[in-house]
Design goal:
4-stranded mixed β-sheet, two-stranded antiparallel sheet, alpha+beta
Length: 127
């Protein structure tokens, strides 16, 4: 099975998308996603298809991330996280990634294809 879709908006980097905040009750610091990463997470949730049932087994993701400038690093971490529970159960299922960096100043977006490369049923039958 294969699912293809486009997410409008510039992908946020998972590497540089953490912010330190303090828990008001315990006063302990912890990390949360940056404002840009949280906004992108919401954009993915609003635009990505909801697969029923979720894709199972080992997956391949091919994505072209169109950025508005050359500045951002090529990073699909937030995108992978945001697709959990919508396209697949867990991003650990993605065993193969093909990522491409492109520029579109007027229309930053992610063009994504997720496909099953080995289904759970095949893995169980082989055991």
């Amino acid at each position: 099975m294969t699912v293809s879709f486009t997410i409008m908006g510039e992908a946020s980097s998972g590497k540089n998308s953490r912010k330190i905040v303090t828990n008001p009750k315990t006063r302990r610091p912890f990390l949360i996603k940056s404002k840009k990463a949280r906004a992108y997470f919401k954009a993915v949730a609003a635009q990505a298809p909801r697969c029923e049932p979720l894709l199972t087994g080992q997956l391949r993701m091919t994505a072209t991330l169109y950025y508005a400038t050359e500045r951002p690093d090529l990073d699909a971490g937030v995108l992978l996280d945001a697709l959990q529970g919508r396209v697949y159960k867990n991003d650990r299922q993605v065993r193969e990634q093909h990522l491409y960096h492109a520029i579109d100043r007027n229309s930053p977006r992610a063009e994504v294809t997720v496909e099953v490369i080995q289904d759970d049923h095949v893995l169980q039958d082989a055991a």
